[in-house]
Design brief:
Shape: globular
Number of domains: 1
Helix content: over 70%
Largest sheet: none
Length: about 325
């Protein structure tokens, strides 16, 4: 019974957190105007072009993942690695961070790749991505420090008085986000602690993590990593050209919002819903975009990008049908 309640809470709490933040961000929003912009003010050619760079990083992530599996004597089909990544992104919409586990389970069934070893390679991937994001963030913050200071001040994170801090709605939104991240880390800690007690799991996990040392083509791995994050950025940046009010913001603004939005997605809500909108809208306003227009941008862009994740997930699931013959490369 307690386990069932825990599972339900894991499913509902991220949705509730994202829903609450969305409510506060859009509580006085003109949704009729957003619909009007979607129907008549959106340049769909640019939006569709941007979706190409939403598909590419997932595919490249699958190719890079296979590279990490090769030193472990695991040679799954490249296509299966890509399909598993497609499914993992969609799975994370239901339960944040479920994707990392789900794609390992998929390869275990489809290509007999040991679950613990593949999970270790996913941990390695995440460490590499964190390092990459950290470098991008450091450069962005150092070159745009005054803007980030203004962002923190306006969102109630840095303000002159304690009284103002506790009366700021944005402070409580930020507090909820931080609480959500801490809860996620605690959950991961408990999960890893449980698995480490299972015989052989810890050793396989360690072997997977250390697989990076034996990747046969490190330059290709680095290229894949740069390509993944470059595509992520273009996936976001090209959407600026979908609307007249955002087309002139430029690369610097896109980089600042990309970094802010990426960190917002860490908060355990479905695809960052809520925290991502909050971060992008607030930063877009710092560049002079009207609050209503910024809200429209975040709502449409996030909605379309989430739909793409769902679509790719369904495609990946269908392609990985149990009736499909598996041939190893």
């Amino acid at each position: 019974m307690k386990k069932s309640i825990r599972q339900v809470l894991k499913l509902l709490l991220p949705i509730a957190l994202g829903g609450f933040i969305l409510y506060w961000v859009y509580r006085d929003f003109d949704f009729a105007r957003a619909w009007q912009t979607l129907a008549h003010g959106t340049r769909w050619g640019w939006l569709l072009f941007s979706l190409l760079f939403g598909i590419l990083p997932q595919a490249i992530r699958g190719w890079r993942w296979r590279q990490l599996l090769e030193p472990l004597d695991a040679y799954p089909r490249r296509s299966n690695c890509v399909y598993a990544v497609f499914v993992s992104y969609a799975a994370s919409l239901l339960v944040p961070r479920l994707g990392e586990v789900s794609r390992c389970g998929i390869l275990s069934r489809s290509d007999q790749v040991p679950f613990a070893k593949s999970l270790g390679t996913v941990v390695t991937e995440r460490l590499v991505d964190m390092l990459t994001l950290g470098l991008v963030t450091l450069v962005t913050v150092l070159t745009q420090f005054p803007l980030f200071t203004t962002f923190l001040r306006q969102t109630g994170t840095k303000i002159p008085s304690t009284l103002h801090l506790f009366t700021s709605v944005w402070f409580y939104i930020a507090l909820l986000c931080v609480t959500g991240v801490l809860a996620l880390l605690y959950s991961i800690r408990k999960t890893l602690f449980f698995y480490e007690r299972v015989k052989g799991f810890a050793l396989n996990l360690r072997e997977g993590v250390l697989s990076l040392r034996h990747v046969p083509n490190i330059p290709l791995f680095v290229f894949y990593t740069v390509a993944i994050w470059g595509c992520y950025f273009l996936h976001f940046y090209l959407t600026f050209y979908c609307f007249g009010f955002s087309e002139g913001l430029g690369l610097t603004a896109a980089l600042v919002m990309f970094v802010g939005g990426t960190f917002a997605i860490i908060v355990p809500t479905p695809n960052g819903a809520g925290p991502w909108h909050f971060a992008v809208i607030t930063m877009m306003m710092l560049y002079g975009v009207d609050a209503e227009d910024a809200g429209i941008f975040a709502l449409i862009v996030h909605g379309v990008q989430t739909f793409l994740v769902v679509l790719l997930g369904v495609y990946g699931w269908a392609a990985l049908s149990p009736t499909k013959k598996i041939n190893h490369l």
